[in-house]
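ok so I'm stuck.
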Amino acid sequence: MFDAAHQQLGGPLVVVWDNLNTHTSAAMRRLIRARPWLMVFYLPTYAPELNPVEGVSAHMKKSLANLAMRTIDQLIAVVKNRLKRMQYRPALITGFTAKTGLDFRPP
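replied:
not stuck anymore, here's the structure
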C-alpha cells in the first residue's frame, strides 16, 4: 500500500497512526525503516480528541438517539441518510477537524 502510494504520488509519505498492534509490530517497524521516504507519527495511546472521526461518531450517535428501528435494514437506511446529510455540510466536517487543533495543511 505505501509503496504504491509513494510511486503514484512521487514524493514522501507521512502517516499518522493509532497504536493498533499491527501498526506497532516488529514487522511494521522493519517495513518503515526500509523506506526512508515514509515518516510515521503515532497518536498517544488514547487520544480521541485528536481524531476527527470521534466527532463524526458523536454526531451520528446523537442524531440516532431516541429512534426505534424495527429492522436492521431500517437502521442501515437511516445511518446512510445521516451520513449523506453530513456530506453536504462542509462546515460540519471542517468543525470535526478544527476541534482536534491539528494543522492538516501540507508543510
